[in-house]
Amino acid sequence: MNIFLLILGMAAVTYIPRVIPVLLVEKLRFGVKTERFLSLIPYTAMTALVFPGVLTMDGTNIWIGIAGAVTAMVLSWKKAPIMLIILGAVVAVMLAYLLL
């Protein structure tokens, strides 16, 4: 019984901080500049998470990670579907491993 209560408590502690912002953001109205700024946060966070991995993907050859990143950027710029971008980057990395 103690373990069950512990699991319920941990679930509540995890769930409450995630729900509160969702409930509050719907009621708040922001200016145009603030909305634009907030809309760019996911892209910035994704870049901050992915970029170090690009540079440290292969310790011996940095160009392998760069090949995948450049491929993904070009496909994104051409407005390709996300699955095509991912597959294109994977294929570019595989080719870079074979060629470099």
From TrEMBL:
<dbReference type="Pfam" id="PF05437">
    <property type="entry name" value="AzlD"/>
</dbReference>
<keyword id="KW-1133">Transmembrane helix</keyword>
<keyword id="KW-0812">Transmembrane</keyword>
<protein>
    <recommendedName>
        <fullName>Branched-chain amino acid transporter</fullName>
    </recommendedName>
</protein>
<dbReference type="InterPro" id="IPR008407">
    <property type="entry name" value="Brnchd-chn_aa_trnsp_AzlD"/>
</dbReference>
<keyword id="KW-0472">Membrane</keyword>
<feature type="transmembrane region" description="Helical">
    <location>
        <begin position="82"/>
        <end position="99"/>
    </location>
</feature>
<feature type="transmembrane region" description="Helical">
    <location>
        <begin position="6"/>
        <end position="25"/>
    </location>
</feature>
